[in-house]
Design brief:
about 5% helix, 1 helix
């Protein structure tokens, strides 16, 4: 099943990221011949996961690590009355 589907807040809102519906598998890097990543959220364990091993692209990392959108420029000061 998709790991993140319906979870707060990214995957339970309208227009959620496509990776929310993708499955990922935990893999043994010594036996895995496809792309995998190291899970950084499990304290005390080194786990590796792969979307590719489950037939999906890893869109999580490109979404998660994308730079923030630039802030809009400041508004000009109001023009004083004549």
């Amino acid at each position: 099943d998709p790991h993140d589907s319906g979870l707060e807040v990214t995957c339970n809102s309208t227009g959620y990221a496509g990776w929310c519906e993708h499955e990922r598998c935990y893999v043994d890097p010594a036996a895995c011949s496809t792309e995998y990543s190291t899970a950084a959220y499990v304290v005390g364990a080194t786990l590796h996961y792969s979307y590719r091993a489950c037939g999906f692209r890893n869109e999580l990392e490109s979404w998660f690590y994308q730079p923030p959108s630039p802030s809009p420029p400041p508004s000009p000061p109001p023009t004083p009355p004549p």
